[in-house]
Amino acid sequence: EIVLTQSPATLSLSPGERATLSCRASQSVSNFLTWYQQKPGQAPRLLIYDTSNRATGIPARFSGSGSGTDFTLTISSLEPDDFAVYYCQQRANWPPITFGQGTRLEIK
Amino acid sequence: QVQLVQSGAEVKKPGASVKVSCRAFGYTFTSYYLHWVRQAPGQGLEWMAMINPIGGDTRYAQKFQGRLTMTRDTSTSTVYMELSSLRSEDTAIYYCAGGYCSGDCYFDFWGQGALVTVSS
Questions:
Q1: Candidates B36, B45, B47, partner chain A, best to mutate (most A CBs within 10 A)
Q2: Cα separation of B33 and B7, whole Å?
Q3: In what order do the strands lie in the sheet with A4-7?
Q4: What is the pLDDT of residues B30-58, one digit of tens each?
Q5: Nearest by CB to B105, which of A36, A43, A94?
Q6: Do A50 and B103 count as a contact with CB atoms less than 8 A apart?
Q7: Measured between alpha carbons, how far apart are the two ends of chain B, in Å?
């Protein structure tokens, strides 16, 4: 089973700042890496798939990069609506599909 | 509008089974794979199973093998998740989610979730 490790666990930033979230895989997942955003009481929302493709309706301030085992989600300039929990997910060598443990992005 | 509508909350005793439904609206049912993902209170996301609506082929996380059954009814565009031998650790929100599974496999749209509480 491929383990995804996200860092940091919590990120405290202010609106307007740049956020950089990391996801590291225990073995290569090629480019099969996806990012989701989840707000309290809501289902997750797809942000980025295939490492760097934004889902429909996702603002351009969200971008994804990486390959193999190291991936990054970047939010270029934080909006108040962006403070949430972010999960990465992979499907290489599945089942199972696995998720990282999440990064909580909180307002500083 | 693509939508997944799940059945309501359930309370079950340890050792019992639960069956959660998820009905798809707004798209051709056979166009997307459907999955079950759960989230224990205050915890992260855990993938459980997937079904291909065309042929009904399923894949399960090994953790749930023998205890989890995912089925579909194409006549009503509905998928079902049945989990047996429930224990307290199965208390969670159970989400159905749909998306593509060729190349990458990701969840493009989600149901509202169904809280399953296992308690004596």
A1: B45
A2: 19
A3: A4-7, A19-25, A70-75, A62-67
A4: 999 999 999 999 999 999 999 999 999 99
A5: A94
A6: yes
A7: 40
